[in-house]
Amino acid sequence: MSRAWLIGAGPGDVELLTLKAARTLALADVVLVDDLVNPEVLQFARDDAQIVHVGKRGGQQSTPQPEIVAMMLDHLRAGRSVARLKGGDPFVFGRGGEEQQALQAAGIHVEIISGITAGIAAPAAIGIPVTHRDHAQGVIFVTGHGAGEHEADWRALAATHMTLVIYMGMRRLNDIVDALLRADMPPDTPCAAIESATRPEQRHVRATLSEFVQRVAQAQLGSPSIVVIGGVASLAAPVDAMLKP
Ligand code: SAH
What we know:
By secondary structure, the chain is α/β, with parallel strands linked by helices.
């Protein structure tokens, strides 16, 4: 019988793929791959597996979500097992939930294989723990992508005094930082942005909230980056001390 999996590929470094993800990939007849998935991960797929890239990088349009689901259903109905490979964890800002719902609506059970999410791995890659007894009683994962009615309530988030880990936050960083400052978050709050975390091209910036936007712009940090705001960001290792594994 054909099977369907939603697999987290981890944040970038192929060694941060789980054993279960690697083992499952080797069972798939078809692998549908998102942006942000390190292509090295495909070494675990079978040589004869059909690999389909559905991401939007490399100047191509991303495949619309309904089309991805339709593709999965076609393969499954034809008796082929399908692995849907997503960056990080499939259920953290990866639309994995939507894909699961669509497959369930078609009567198909999809197995979820968790991955290490960038929101934890990227801060960790520069020595930032997302929680720490002295700094934050909790951590909030939030998308910076929303605007208008989808905008997060930054004032409410600032009031929690918890670590803010922002995914997809670079394009609207200016607005987000403005909103936090207007919500009386102290201008000297430590911040960090980590680009391409756990990959050889990893880079990061650390600054206080008031200088953060300017420093990120100076360093020309872009996507994909994770933004960390809160006391824990002061625990980042000094740049000079960063050793590659
Ligand atoms: N499901 C993924 C997140 C997908 S949303 C996960 O669990 O990690 C895409 C966003 O994730 C990017 O805009 C960026 O904010 C973040 N991201 C993914 N991989 C990253 C990496 N290697 N370094 C920094 N940020 C990353």
